[in-house]
From TrEMBL:
Lineage: superkingdom: Eukaryota
Protein name, entry field: Odorant receptor
Transmembrane segments: 37-55, 67-89, 193-216, 260-278, 284-307, 355-377
Example of a GO cellular component annotation carried by this entry: plasma membrane
Organism of derivation: Lutzomyia longipalpis
Alphabetically ordered keywords of this record: Cell membrane, Membrane, Olfaction, Receptor, Sensory transduction, Transducer, Transmembrane, Transmembrane helix
Record carries keyword Membrane: yes
Record GO biological process: signal transduction
Coiled coil start-end: none
Pfam families assigned: 7tm_6
Keyword Membrane applies: yes
GO molecular function list: odorant binding; olfactory receptor activity
Amino acid sequence: MARHLKEYIKVKPVIEFLIALSTFNVFSGPLKNRIKILLLIFCNIFFWYFLYTHLTNTINSQININLMWTLVMWIVLCDFFLIMISNVFKRKKFHLLMQNIQEVFDGDSEDEEDEEFEGVFQNHVNYSMKVFVFLNRWEIRLMTCLMIIAGIIFRVRKNYGLIIEINFITSDNILWRESQYILQSLLGSLTGFFGLSMNIGLTFMGLAIITELNILNDHMKLLNEKIKNQPNFLKKVIKKHCSVINNFNLFSEIFSETSFMVLFANCVSFLFGFSFLMNYSSDIINYMLIVAGTMLSLHVCILGEVISIKSENLSETLYQTNWYELSLKDQKMFLIILGMSQREYKLKALGMYDVNLYTFVQISKVAFSYCAVLYSLSQ
């Protein structure tokens, strides 16, 4: 078995779980995954209900930091549920794209015979797997740490306190009150895991698109050399390019609504986070909200940026080809590839807004500016 396939097979169970969670697929797959998904969803539903109960019972009272934290957590959790519901309707597209990614990672039998191509192919796949493993391991760990620290702060600082309310159990017992703080921290951690897991599943598919673009770019770089020995090499390049376009279109359809809701959650986190910082600048938990908002959307924006850059590189690589040395038949085929390479590969939220680092910076600037204006008016 090729080395790159070993790396992929190692993380495949994790990927299958992330995709199943994103699409709420509890009807197929390993029983362990289905139970984990159901438990995770039920816990988040309970958390949503407890937050909503506390929100409705305190909304008419004085606006304070406790109420605002309850509101931001409730809005973000609603956003996560909307992302999952949107993905449920795209379940077939998820499965089709995953099948196509599997075919890409399996490799081309002709490329496997070429040691140069095989080495480059393995490097690209292994790199994408390393990035995925890093994100999956450390982002979720970081989010869990943030939620645990937040739980401790909510317990220690009286003005934060409980943001959940379990109205069907009424007791003044100190043990029960402490148990609510533990439950609040646990449910908050599960919510962070829920949202990040869906994002990381999306990130894996984006990394697969980037890997395919890199492989196609390497084929184009060797066009001058390989066309002399392999007359059908141009056909192979066209085939790979068609595969890239097909997979990118599938990913764009999956990504469209999801990316908008991720950016919305990021915007909400920044709006509340900057507002909290202007009023409670000494509280570390408010900085943590900014970090959490960044974790939700930054890697999604980076994906869009990298895919756009890699697609532009295809045109530049193709322009360096000695097309004038090709036969008339190959020149016609070259024109087809040239036309395909000039297409823009840009991820868009709702098909309208570019998803890239510029968008992330703009959201940060708008959120900060809006909070600064409100703060100055309130003084």
